[in-house]
What we know:
The protein has helices at residues 11-19, 67-82; strands at 27-29, 38-49, 53-64, 87-89, 92-106, 114-125. By secondary structure, the chain is an alpha+beta fold.
Amino acid sequence: MRPEGRHFANLRTLLRTYMLTLDGIGGAGTKLEPIFPFVLITVIPSGGDNYLWSRQTVDIEVFHRDYSAAADFTRLVHDHMMKLRHSYVDGVPISDVTTINSFGDLDYEDDTVHRFIAEYEIESIANAQPL
Length: 131
């Protein structure tokens, strides 16, 4: 019989909190804001769980007014994401982070804003924090 109340951390909230600790960041969240550099976090319907561990895929997008600065900032963001392995964010244990797709630039159809996107899989444990 399974215990009641098992749940996983809200990954979007966890990643926003974590990204805001990155030096030089203008902002982070789940809705694009005109504060650059900005990191947009999207949790994609994916992965699964075995009732103990959850695996979820996230898109991490970097927006910046300057192309070169955006490209440089993606290196910092990637390094920050890799440091999540075997760490805790607000008491939530993160066991693994895997790069699915490294950062690449995508046309944002706006000559004044440049966008780079990467995709990661993050594994965390159940009952990490209340809903």
